[in-house]
Amino acid sequence: MANQPPVVSFQGVEKRYGNGPLILDGINFEAQRGDFISLIGPSGCGKSTILKLISALSPISSGKIIVDGMSPEAAMEEMFFVFQEPTLLPWLTVAANVAVPMRLRGVSQKRDEIVAKSLAMVGLAERANYYPRQLSGGQKMRVSIARALSVSPRILLLDEPFGALDEMTRDHLNEELLSIRQQQAWTAFFVTHSVAEAVFLSNRIFVLSANPGRLYQEVKVDLPYPRTEETRQSASYQHLVGEVSKLLRSVERLQGAAKTAATA
Amino acid sequence: MKSTFDRLLPAFTGAGLIALWYAARLLLSEEQRFLLPPPHEVVLAFRDNGAAIWSAAQNTAVGALLGFLFAVTLSFILALLLSLSPRMRTGFYPYLMVLQMTPIVVLAPILILWVGPGIKSVVIITFLICFFPMVVNTTQGLISTDRNLVDFFRMCKATKRQTIFLLRVPAALPYFFTGLRIAGTLAPIGAIVGDFYAGNSAGGGGGLGFLTIVFSAQFKMAALFAAAVASCAMGFIFVGGVVSLSWWALHRWHDSYNKADT
Question: For chain A, which residues lie within 8 Å of any Cβ of chain B, measuring from their own Cβ?
Answer without folding.
Answer: 55, 57, 76-77, 79-81, 83-85, 87, 89-92, 100-101, 103-105, 131-136
